């Protein structure tokens, strides 16, 4: 009986280790298999992207934590063109512009909000 309890605790621990780090992961699920974002999505959204080990996802995702460093982003490209936000959630996700794990994504998808225009 003791080994069953121990086994249950081990499985519960493993399951708790695979959660999304940000609340926006379900909104970004379409990026799980996008070649540009696979490393980021695997790190930040393993539960949403089904990257957990067998039996590894449980509960709801936690909130992400801001990194300590400056974000690198791409500037406006050559050739002109409008500089707009690519999605409706840019304004409420503006804080991600300076989170290193999201900086490249945000600079591309939310250029106006992140101040990457011109």
Describe this structure in words.
The protein is an all-alpha fold and 118 residues long. It has three helices and no strands. It has helices spanning 2-16, 38-44, 103-109. The termini are far apart.
Map the helices and strands.
Layout: H1 2-16, H2 38-44, H3 103-109
Defining key terms:
118 residues, mainly alpha, 3 helices, 0% strand
- Report the average pLDDT across residues: 72
Taking pLDDT < 50 over at least 5 consecutive residues as the criterion, the unreliable ranges are 5-14, 56-79
- Taken in chain order, the helices and strands follow as HHH
How large is the count of helical segments? 3
Q: Domains counted in the coordinates: how many?
A: 2
Q: What is the distance, rounded to the nearest whole angstrom, between the alpha carbons of the first and last residues?
A: 67 Å
The SS-based structural class is mainly alpha
* Number of DSSP-assigned strands: 0
What profile does the largest beta sheet have?
none
Q: Provide the gyration radius in Å.
A: 18 Å
Strand content: under 5%
- What overall form do the CA principal axes indicate? elongated
Overall helicity: 10-25%
